[in-house]
Amino acid sequence: MVIIFFLGAGFYANFDCVMLDVCPIHIGDNCMLAPGVHIYTATHPLDADARNSGQEYGKPVTIGTMCGIGGRAVINPGVTIGDNAVIASGAVVTKDVPACTVVGGNPAQIIKRLPPTNP
User: Fold this and answer.
1) Largest alpha-carbon pair distance within the chain?
2) pLDDT at position 109, please?
3) Is 44 a catalytic residue?
4) What structural domains does the chain harbor?
5) What is the pLDDT of residue 82?
6) Contact 10/27 with Cβ under 8 angstroms?
7) Which residues form a coiled coil (predicted)?
8) Which residue has the higher pLDDT, 7 or 46?
9) Could you say which of 26, 44, 59, 72 is catalytic?
10) What is the distance between the alpha carbons of residues 57 and 117, in angstroms, rounded to a whole number?
């Protein structure tokens, strides 16, 4: 059996969230998703001929512990979000997010660094 989802203890997702899981999605303990968060693992080739052939593939998404993801944020395939990170509402996350940072915008950029937390 292949495990596609891993949702940690204390995970919470508000309404209208989408998790497109053609690859694993791992979400750590005590993470919160606001309304309308979308997490995608499906992607396709950039080359037009390959794309037009119908070829698709996936890249896993990993979200660390104690993360907060704001409303209508989009997490793209292959992204890893570090522990204690915060994703602002409406952010489009296309690259990995370091632990203890706040990111926002399209594409998401670091807005602020947060102090490390004690487990």
Assistant:
1) 50
2) 99
3) yes
4) 5-111 (2.160.10.10)
5) 98
6) no
7) none
8) 7
9) 44
10) 36
Pairing type for strands 101-104 and 80-81 reads unpaired
- Residue-wise pLDDT tens digits, 39-85: 999 998 888 888 788 778 899 999 999 999 999 999 999 999 999 99
Q: What is the DSSP string of 25-86?
A: EEE-TT-EE-TT-EEE-EE--SSHHHHHTT--EE--EEE-SS-EE-TT-EE-TT-EE-TT-E
What is the distance, to the nearest Å, from the Cα of residue 64 to the centroid of all Cα atoms in its chain?
10
Q: Is 92 helix (H, G, I), strand (E, B) or coil?
A: strand
Structure tokens at 98: 């370091």
Report d(CA 21, CA 43) in Å as an integer: 11
pTM for this model (two decimals): 0.92
Q: How far is CA 88 from CA 22, 33, 37, 59, 101, in A?
A: 25, 11, 11, 23, 11
CA gap 51, 94 in Å, rounded: 20
